[in-house]
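Good morning N.,

You mentioned wanting to compare the apo and holo forms, so I went ahead and generated the holo version with NAP. This is what I fed in:
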Amino acid sequence: MEKLYDAGKARAIGVSNFSTKKLGDLLVVARVRPAVNQVECHPGWQQSKLHNFCQSTGIHVSAYSPLGSPGTPWMNSNVLEEPVITLIANKLGKTPAQVALCWNIQMGHSVLPKSLNEERIKQNLDVYDWSIPDDLLAMLTDIKQSLYILCCCIVIWCNQVSTKVFFYLVRAW
Ligand SMILES: NC(=O)c1ccc[n+]([C@@H]2O[C@H](COP(=O)([O-])OP(=O)(O)OC[C@H]3O[C@@H](n4cnc5c(N)ncnc54)[C@H](OP(=O)(O)O)[C@@H]3O)[C@@H](O)[C@H]2O)c1
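and this is what came out, ligand included:
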């Protein structure tokens, strides 16, 4: 990628699904700093540690699955049904999806929602001329995080298999 960048064939280098550890390792050897890291990010998986790391190193965070991929059965995919989100949506006269997208935008991230529905596409674009007030924004930090739930599932699973497998997975991430 750096060769393509040097040759002017790429204007910037981006990475995806890089944890703070992987980004840290990359920054030690990279000549060209990645401009962007595309990761799953939404109020149910806020990626606070990664967000802070990227802010301090000047790497933009781009959020995929910003609505929490509603309907995905294997994760905490009920972001749009989170009581805090629906409460804020009702207070502001917005939809839960718009609140979820606005949270990411206010965090300084770009968002990549996907929809095949024209009305929802329009709704998802209508998030740039309003914002969530600070007091309501603070309430979103209380949402239980997907990673926490995922880790609990892995721990339960590993207790049945082997704790070594669990630590191997944690180190690999
Ligand atoms: N880099 C990576 O590793 C990676 C991994 C996963 C995904 N992605 C990318 O991220 C993008 C989005 O990811 P995603 O599809 O997993 O998650 P998402 O955008 O969070 O969720 C998409 C789902 O939300 C529904 N939806 C969209 N707008 C809505 C609204 N306003 N209200 C209610 N439901 C709404 C869609 O249904 P309808 O179509 O019926 O509206 C669809 O089922 C995709 O472009 C994907 O390629 C990247």
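Residues 16-17, 38, 64-71, 80, 95, 97, 112-117, 120, 123-124 surround NAP (CB under 6 Å).

Happy to go through it together on a call whenever suits you.

Best,
F.
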